[in-house]
């Protein structure tokens, strides 16, 4: 086990240490400074903007910026929906995959357009190579770029004084896709191919096994998808079981590379924040606060999974390597748990172990991480979600000391608080109401096990499966308790709608908030100002995150994972 | 608004071609040159050219002359993969774990305490190519007995096929079952087909 703990620590350390470098690169790209990749990527960026018909000098206010985002996303939605529903008639389909059924296509396309990557299909049986390229991979790049673009616009607004314009959506988006995600994805793909992730246009291979059986081995363009799925906090795997599949994550080294890729851009975004608003201490405080939530969750989840399943321990077998149901030997229990927390804090959603088979409290950690959804968070949107909590913490702290709340020298007033509350309350509303509706349907259907067939597991764990699905959809995460039989019209449509609303409300409200802050004049800071870049504020923020972010979900945590844990412990 | 839609369409088209098409094609070309074997799925061929499997994809082994892989929820179907998704308290799951323990106790002549949990739990994708060294050790005596060869020689093969953690740090020591069984056949010959009918 000891090497497993070392691997967890090394992966986390490597990502934290290199996030400064990547954050610096992001800052240079978005402020127009020179970088060492310019000779190659700037011409490509210009090409995209010229074809699109964008004047890079044109500036947009937050409304125009949001409209460009929504319109471009709508066009992408329609284009990719058309591709997957017609894939059987299109080329590059060596395994003769059929067209995607319309409600499943609604769910899939909504899922990938919103950077969620919840998958109610299995890649190897549900998508042609053409769909994997032009629908899945394409969306994995541009939706991650959308998140980064809006985050950058929000940061610019925060930095500005009497500012009306926040940037140009297409310029930001193109820079994020072409100059940030593309080079990183090529580099990561290269390492993954070296480790054994396939990248081939050839169809499934047929093997005659040693014992004389026949094994059909699905393959395809996995390396390119896996790289961008991790870097863009998309998480949608090439194959059904995601990075538990040996073709998606073949070795401990690929586990390291993918683990790094999951968290690097979300961490780098925090670094970039400090550079853009010109207060590096603010980055340090927010980064440290995030780590102070993230690391205890990792430690707790690792301890749970390494501790094994008590029900199996009572059978007297050797479980010293931890709970191994749904896990892979080359990954191991500790790294699986580390991955589970990292992929859910960052809104990624790729998995290296089946979350449905995690121990009850080990499985509570990914749930809690998604309930918060702001610890590093998805590329771009993680920072945006954190901004909401920062504003609320500023407000709470301001109330406690009896002063007008201020953030970065700007007054935080009623309009800002309303927008923050809208974004803040939408998330629990979507999770809890969605789960309640699912439970209601289940409870009022006669013989639901046969009629609906949703739940793989009985008791509190079955409740957790439904809870996890709506949590994952509402936090645009995409991982699942995959025992849930989710490819039904009910789940396809309900989670599809939740994903769409949960993407755009929490993106636009904070952008409007930041724009509202930007329009105000910056007041000089005095000794009486609340300093957001202080350790005291970091602790306040930590308390607000934990209390406000988690308390709303306490009841469902008790009904699902905690009830299951107690029943297991009582055996 | 019309201008917005036109820009959205153009942007979608150009980035779709670039990030969906050119990106994958470029990686494919790099893979063919730099890692031709891995890019095609790390397939293993016999000397006559037939594919026997992939070094990354586990196979089902039932015959007693071979080392067995971990349980698989999809029966090692590499065209439709997945885990059991059984929760830790699921009674059906716990029953099947108990049945697997009993089966291994009978086949290997060991007690429960000697059985690594990996051998009674299903892997994530149902294709785990590896078992931990302890799980291979558990099977050494049976394989040697069935093949009527020296236990030490079989154990030496297992040791030779144990991969250490990467750089001595990352991941766990593990044994690739397919490669080990191929090496068994190389060293001691393929078991007679008669044994096959007996075992089934």
Shape of chain B: extended
Q: Estimate the global geometry of chain A from the Cα principal axes.
A: globular
> Number of DSSP helices of chain A?
20
Largest sheet of chain B: 3 strands, antiparallel
Helix content of chain B: 40-55%
How many strands of chain B?
5
Uncertain segments of chain A: none
Which radius of gyration of chain B do the C-alpha atoms yield?
22 Å
Task: Determine the most extensive contact between two protein chains.
Answer: A-B, 125 and 105 residues
Instruction: Quote the distance from N terminus to C terminus of chain A.
Output: 26 Å
Would you give an account of this structure?
Chain A has 571 residues and is mainly α. Chain A has helices spanning 2-31, 38-52, 62-85, 102-113, 123-126, 129-159, 169-195, 222-231, 252-276, 280-307, 310-313, 332-345, 360-372, 381-401, 414-444, 448-451, 459-474, 489-518, 535-551, 554-569, and strands at residues 205-208, 214-217, 406-407, 410-411. In chain A, the strands form two sheets. Chain A has a two-stranded antiparallel ribbon. In chain A, strands 3-4 form a two-stranded antiparallel sheet. Chain A is globular. The two termini of chain A are 26 Å apart. Chain B is mainly alpha-helical. Chain B folds into two domains: 1-40, no CATH class; 55-199, no CATH class. Chain B has helices at 2-34, 36-39, 91-108, 133-147, 151-160, 177-188, 193-199, and strands at 43-45, 51-54, 130-131, 162-163, 174-176. Chain B has a three-stranded antiparallel sheet. In chain B, helix 4 packs antiparallel against helix 5. The interface between A and B is large, with 125 and 105 residues.
């Amino acid at each position: 086990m000891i090497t497993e703990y070392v691997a967890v620590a090394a992966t986390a350390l490597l990502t934290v240490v290199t996030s400064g470098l990547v954050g610096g690169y992001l800052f240079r790209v978005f402020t127009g400074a020179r970088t060492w990749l310019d000779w190659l990527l700037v011409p490509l960026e210009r090409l995209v903007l010229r074809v699109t018909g964008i004047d890079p000098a044109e500036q947009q206010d937050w409304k125009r910026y949001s409209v460009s985002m929504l319109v471009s996303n709508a066009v992408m939605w329609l284009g990719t929906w058309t591709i997957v529903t017609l894939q059987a008639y299109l080329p590059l389909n060596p395994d003769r995959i059929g067209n995607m059924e319309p409600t499943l296509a609604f769910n899939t396309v909504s899922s990938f357009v919103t950077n969620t990557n919840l998958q109610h299909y299995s890649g190897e049986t549900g998508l042609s190579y053409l769909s994997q390229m032009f629908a899945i991979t394409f969306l994995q790049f541009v939706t991650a770029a959308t998140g980064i673009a809006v985050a950058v616009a929000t940061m610019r607004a925060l930095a500005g004084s009497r500012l009306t314009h926040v940037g140009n959506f297409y310029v930001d988006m193109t820079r994020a896709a072409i100059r940030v995600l593309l080079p990183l994805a090529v580099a990561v793909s290269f390492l993954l191919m070296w480790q054994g992730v396939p990248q081939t246009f050839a169809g499934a291979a047929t093997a005659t096994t040693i014992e004389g059986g026949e094994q059909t081995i699905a393959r395809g363009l996995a390396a390119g998808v896996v790289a961008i799925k991790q870097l863009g906090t998309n998480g949608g795997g090439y194959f059904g079981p995601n990075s538990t599949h040996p073709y998606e994550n073949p070795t401990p080294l690929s586990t390291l590379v993918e683990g790094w890729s999951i968290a690097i851009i979300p961490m780098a975004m925090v670094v970039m924040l400090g550079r853009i608003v010109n207060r590096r201490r603010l980055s340090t405080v927010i980064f440290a606060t995030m780590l102070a939530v993230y690391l205890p969750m990792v430690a707790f989840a690792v301890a749970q999974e390494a501790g094994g399943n008590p029900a199996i321990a009572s059978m007297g077998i050797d479980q010293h390597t931890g709970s191994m149901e749904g896990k892979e030997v080359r990954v191991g229990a500790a790294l699986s748990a580390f991955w589970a927390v990292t992929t859910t804090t960052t809104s990624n959603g790729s998995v290296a172990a089946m979350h449905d088979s995690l121990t009850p409290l080990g499985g509570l950690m990914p749930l809690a991480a998604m309930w918060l959804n702001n610890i590093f968070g998805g590329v771009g949107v993680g920072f945006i979600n954190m901004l909401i909590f920062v504003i609320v913490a500023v407000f709470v702290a301001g109330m406690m000391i009896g002063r007008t709340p201020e953030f970065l020298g700007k007054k935080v007033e009623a309009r800002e608080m309303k927008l923050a509350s809208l974004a803040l309350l939408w998330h629990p509303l979507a999770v809890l109401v969605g789960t309640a509706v699912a439970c209601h349907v289940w409870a009022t259907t006669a013989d639901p096990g046969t009629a609906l067939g949703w739940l793989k597991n009985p008791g509190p764990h079955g409740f957790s499966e439904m809870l996890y699905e709506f949590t994952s959809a509402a936090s645009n995460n995409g991982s699942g308790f995959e025992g849930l039989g989710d490819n039904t019209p009910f789940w396809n449509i309900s989670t599809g709608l939740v994903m769409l609303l949960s993407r755009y409300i929490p993106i636009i409200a904070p952008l409007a908030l930041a724009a509202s802050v930007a329009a105000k004049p910056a007041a000089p800071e005095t000794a009486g100002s609340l300093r957001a870049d202080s350790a005291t504020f970091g602790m306040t923020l930590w308390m607000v995150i934990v209390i406000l972010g988690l308390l709303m979900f306490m009841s469902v945590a008790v009904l699902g994972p905690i009830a299951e844990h107690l029943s297991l412990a009582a055996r | 608004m019309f201008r917005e839609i036109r820009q959205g369409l153009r942007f979608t088209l150009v980035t779709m071609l670039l990030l969906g098409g050119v990106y994958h094609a470029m990686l494919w070309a790099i893979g063919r040159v730099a890692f031709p074997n891995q890019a095609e799925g790390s397939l293993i061929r016999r000397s006559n050219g037939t594919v026997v499997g992939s070094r990354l994809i586990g196979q089902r082994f039932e015959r007693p002359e071979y080392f067995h892989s971990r349980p698989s929820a999809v029966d090692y179907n590499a065209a439709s993969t997945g885990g059991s998704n059984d929760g830790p308290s699921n009674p059906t799951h716990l029953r099947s774990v108990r049945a697997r323990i009993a089966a291994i106790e009978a086949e290997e002549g060991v007690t429960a305490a000697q059985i690594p949990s990996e051998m009674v739990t299903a892997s994530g994708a149902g294709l785990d190519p590896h078992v931990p060294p302890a799980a291979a050790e558990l099977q050494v005596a049976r394989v040697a007995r069935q093949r009527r060869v020296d236990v030490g020689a079989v154990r030496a093969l297992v040791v030779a096929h144990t991969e250490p953690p990467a750089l001595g740090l990352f991941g766990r020591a593990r044994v690739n079952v397919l490669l080990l069984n191929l090496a068994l056949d190389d060293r001691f010959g393929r078991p007679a087909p008669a044994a096959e009918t007996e075992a089934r």
